[in-house]
Each structure stands twice: as C-alpha cells, then as structure tokens.
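Consider this record:
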Amino acid sequence: MMMVHTMNRESPDKGLDSGKYVRYTPEQVEALERVYTECPKPSSLRRQQLIRECPILSNIEPKQIKVWFQNRRCREKQRKEAARLQTVNRKLNAMNKLLMEENDRLQKQVSHLVYENGHMKHQLHTASGTTTDNSCESVVVSGQQHQQQNPNPQHLQRDANNPAGLLSIAEEALAEFLSKATGTAVDWVQMIGMKPGPDSIGIVAISRNCSGIAARACGLVSLEPMKVAEILKDRPSWLRDCRCVDTLSVIPAGNGGTIELIYTQMYAPTTLAAARDFWTLRYSTCLEDGSYVVCERSLTSATGGPTGPPSSSFVRAEMRPSGFLIRPCEGGGSILHIVDHVDLDAWSVPEVMRPLYESSKILAQKMTVAALRHVRQIAQETSGEVQYGGGRQPAVLRTFSQRLCRGFNDAVNGFVDDGWTPMGSDGAEDITVMINLSPGKFGGAQYGNSFLPSFGSGVLCAKASMLLQNVPPAVLIRFLREHRSEWADYGVDAYAAASLRASPFAVPCARAGGFPSNQVILPLAQTVEHEESLEVVRLEGHAYSPEDMGLARDMYLLQLCSGVDENVVGGCAQLVFAPIDESFADDAPLLPSGFRVIPLEHKSTPNGATANRTLDLASALEGSTRQAGEADPNGCNFRSVITIAFQFTFDNHSRDSVASMARQYVRSIVGSIQRVALAIAPRPGSSISPISVPTSPEALTLVRWISRSYSLHTGADLFGSDSQTSGDRLLHQLWNHTDAILCCSLKTNASPVFTFANQTGLDMLETTLVALQDIMLDKTLNESGRKALCSEFPKIMQQGYAHLPAGVCASSMGRMVSYEQATVWKVLEDDESNHCLAFMFVNWSFV
C-alpha cells in the first residue's frame, strides 16, 4: 500500500508546487525515517546531502524534505504528549479511587464518633439520675462478671515449634493492620502540608488520642506490587535509623503466605538516650482481591510466641500491628498503603527528650513518608526520569548517602559490638570521647583492612548534644552548610583529610576562625522531592606562612544535606560530610562527621516561663532548664536538640593529643553554634538579648567615617537632630539604627563583599559579623538592583552618593527582602581617600 503524506504533489509545469500534496513511496519514507532516527532536525546542508546520496529522493526538493521533518517532529511530540496525558489520566483515576475510599473511611469514622457521642450522653444522663451509694459494690460485681466471662485473658504461650499458634498471631495482626490502613481503628488526622494530587507524595495522616504513636500514608507508585514489597522489606536501605534486620526463622504458612521472626536494631538519634530494638513477627500474604500485604507486630508475653534475643545496649520497644498494603492499579503501578504504629517507651528517656519519642509527626517523617519517598525514588530511577551528574549510577550515589548516614549513626551511638570504648574525660562532662581500635568492625565492616593505609591504628570520635531554643532546624543546618567559615577549622579539616594519605600529618591545635579558604559546593545528586542532596565540597586552601604549606592543597568533602525545607512538619535536619580524594572510587572509605538537629515540638509553658536559649547536656538533665522571670510574649517554647559528632584517625603515639584536639574542637563548635543560634533566632517577641556592640578602635573609626561622609555628600545628618559626637555614643546610634546600614569593599579587581553591618543589617542578611565577610554584594542584590547600582555608580564616584529605587534583595538564608529605597554613598578616610561603599536600606521587610 502506498503511504500518503501531507506534502506537495507533482505539477506538470513546475515539478513540485508548494502548498499541494505529494505521495511518498515506502522506500522514501524508510530513507527519511533512518535519517530522522540519527538526526531529528537536520541542517540545510544535511538535507541537500541526503538528496544527493539517496537517488529515490532526487525528485523531492530540499524545502519539501524540511517540511517532512517538521511534520515528523510534530507527530513525535503529539505522540509523547498523548502518552503523558494517558499516564496522568491513569494517575488521576487511581488517585480518585483512593480519595473516594478515604472519603468512605472518613464517613464511617464520623458515624462511629456520632454513635459514641450519643452513647456517652446517654451514659451521663443515666448516671445523673441514679444514686451512687452502692457504686463500689457494683464495680466489684461488674469486675467479677467480666472475669467470669474472660477467665484467661492472656494468650496461650506459643513458640516457633507451633506454626499454627504463630499463624493465629499473624492473622490477628493482619486483621488489625487492615482496620488501621483502610478502616477506622485509629482516629487519623491529615498532616499539614500533605495535600493529595497526581504529583504529590500522597495522603499522610497521624494518629490522635492513640496508644503509642502512629502514622499512615497512601500514594501511587509506578512499580508492580511484588517489586514494591521487595523494596520495603529491605528496611536498612530506606530507613536511615535502622541498624540491622536479622531474620531468625522463616515458616511457610498454609495459605501460601510466609511468617518470619525478625530482630531489628534501631539507632538512637542523639547521644541523650539509648537505642531501641524490636522483636517482631512479619506476615506476608496475598488477599482475595489480588492485593499483597506485609504486616508486622511485636511478640510479647501478652501476644505469646517465642522470646526474642536479649541485648543490654538496647531498650525493647513495641511495634503494634503495622505494615503495608499494595494493590495493583489498572494499566500498571500500585496503590500503596503504609501504617507505622509503635510504642518507643518514652518513659525510659530524660523528660526533656520525651517529645521526640511521643511525636507522631516525627514518626511520619522518619519512617512512613521516608518509605513512600524511597519507593517513588526507585520508580523514577527505573524509568530513567532522574538525571545524575558525575557519571555515577543512581544506585552508587544512593549507597554513598546510606554510608554517610550509617557512619554518622555509628559514631553517635558508639556500640560496644562495633569496637567502641569510652576514653576518660578531662574533668568536664560536656564532650564524650570514644575510640575504636577495630577498623575491620568499624562501620559495619565496610572498610576492611585497607581503611587505614599506613597512617593510624584506630578511630576517635568526639560528640556532644545540646538543646536549642526557638531555632528552626532547617535554618540552622542551611547556615552551617553555607557558612562553613563560621565554625570550621581548616587545620583540623586538613588533619582529617590526611587519613586518605599514607604520610603522617601533624596534629593541629584548633584555632578560632582558622579557616583560610573558600568553599565551592558541587552538586552530585538530589532526591525527587529535593528533601535530600548529595554534593562534593571543594575547600580551596591557601598558605599564609611557611608553616601552613601543608594546608595549601585543596581538600574535598562528600557531603549529605537533608531536611532544609522549613515547611516540613516534624522533619529533622542533618549535615554529614566525610573527607575524600579528588577522584574518589565507588568503594572509597568514608569517615563521616556532622550535625543533626531534631525538633522537640512546640510546648506551651505555664506562667510565661521559657527555657534557656541554648543548654548543655548537664543543665538539661539536672532539670535546670527553666528560670523564673524570663517571659516569652508568644507563650511558646519551641525546642530542638542538636547532636554533633566528629571522627578522626590516630596512631598509637598521638592518641592523647588527638583526643585533646578533638575535645577542644567540638567545644569551639558548640560555642560557634550558640553564637549562630543567637543570630538566626526570630527576634520579635524573643527574650534573647541582641548581639553585643563591637567596641574595637577600628569599629569606632569606621562609624565616624560613615557618619562624616554621609553628612559631607548629602548635606544631612545620618542620625537626625539627636546625633552624638563622642565615639561610643555614635557607635551605639549607628548600631541601633532602625534602617539596615552595611559597608561593602570597594575593589576593582575582586567581587565586593560586605565588611560591616549594624544590628538591623545583620538581621536583614540573617548572618553574624563573622560570617558577613563571606557574603558578596552581587549575590545579595537581584538583577534589577545590580543594574540600578551599575547605572548609578559613576554618579556615586563623582557626586559621592545616589538613591536607588525600591527593590528586592536576598538574605544569606535565601529569603527575599523588599525595601522602599536604598541610599549608597562613598565612605572617605581622614585623608579623603576612598575606603568603602555604605548602603542604607530603608523600610525593609521579609517577603
């Protein structure tokens, strides 16, 4: 059959007349298709070459070849769009089905609540119309009748030798799990910010008035049910707090299912509490409607079953019936229901830490949502939708992230069976130091004997935890990531990087502000929803003296940053990094260090009392977290806990010196974090004192130059009629000025950076005086602001000042700041030479 295409046809007068039709033979179409496969958009020369090389196209003009390729590209685009719309339609249909089921469940829950409300009203009405003289007797009789009806409320003891007994436990767990996943067994409340949709993660809910803590999620994934089950059963691959999962027994069930007896160990998120473990029965089976279900529950004396393995380093937690239900979708993919319901024995931890173990929101983010995100990530990687740089496979990059988290968790927990032993303290209890002399065991045996080439015989870890007040975890971690010079010591980083080399490196002394380098962040990978990013950080070294020649070489860190979205409810934020060489292999050894900040939820404090701004571990556990007389106008006490852990290698001769250096370094980091926390905490309604005014002679001189130059150029006084002449009073006036005043370097051969700012300027940039010098002017102003400054710059240099129109700039945290006007003037020294540029942003506010 001849194939007809909408083109030109032959004309008896002109060969081919544009605007008409032409018939293409199958051979011509095949030749064009071959070229289209290689190059969908050939150039004019390529089309002419095609006509010369293919005799069967000799009667076709180049213009008609061009039109054919245009139509072919249009058809391809339409085909892809049709396929995309079909996929979206399938997602919408599945989501609509999911929402209808959720609506039915909510209607049942409402009916149940209405019935309970009516029953309680009836009970109250009945109780109010009767006497209570024989109430004690009625209670005793009622109890006796209940005991007669249930002579043995405990289950009979069941063990691994009785498969029928274990199957009975499994069936009970399955029924209870399904009632939570699709029924009304738990009063679910949707989490804030988790709106359903075709591209959303799904429907996420947490429990209310429930025994223990529980979370539930349901969503769509483009994988088959059995593949989803295989992914979720491998808990250590997606649950970062899971240390290990050991399957001690596998028992086939009579209905084609499988019963497993599982022992699971979980990491403790901080150094303030012990780790948890679970002894559970896991039941996997297919339902009559074709769904695949995996449910799990703890085996206790109440449920019966064999006794789990004991462990002195863990606190036994209880898993109530939990699991996941996977239902196949029409056209491919699955609908996934996940339920996590646990009791973490919150009473065994210090009172200040209990909110962490009693929060369903934190459970939802760390377990339930993490599982759903991981499956969606694997699905998109499988379909090729995720693009990664660096020539690494997605699985390799994912393994790097897992190893960084696992190594950091190992350092924070310091398990004895991994080889960790504590070192003696130096008299203070704020820093814990542990050593590991078994590199083969260290980090789950992931390093082998080649981890420490010829340098070092062990690993040392210095760690601490600290409570913070009114400091958003996401903001703090983002600040630590972007402003490394605020807390890091370049010499200590160089010592940590020396573990990758065979030659020894001298143990440095931690120096305040010892960071003579710039950092460049190179992204490697990012999860689909951008909640986690893997990156390489290049630390550019510079030697300022012959003694610092060892610091002159660039260093590299593999860094994992997560939880920097301030809108996530109950999410923890983390920054973990490890030194690597420039071309690190897929199996490169990693020695992670870093920070983890976990919210402890908002708690209202009675009588206006509030906690200290930052607390060390000793004061927190001794109960001295409240002080009378400190009032918070908002009546809200938002606390979080930050855990810090840094690891170093050492040899037998340097252990004590490395331990001393590590203690000093972590203490300096704690001090830096306290200063950073003071700077980035919300100021309105806060009881925190502002940053102290700098009183150095240089600051006094600079303020005098700023004020004098403003008056000289504009003819007005910077501080109005209340201007003071003495240095100290002038400095206090500028420091407390209501407008943001900043000074910027004036160099022709380098990008201008900020050198000074008053209190309001620091608030606007969300930074500190130390970190201010890392902020460049062109990164702060937006494009229109930079154009306005460039156009007015000649005027500033000639006239001495200029006014910039209203605009928008960015703080160091990336937040947009609007201002009504900006005044720029030259700051002159005493000899009338140019010193810097001063900016005054009037009536600014965060957008």
Notes: The longest helix spans residues 62-128. The two ends are 65 Å apart (CA to CA). The mean pLDDT is 78.
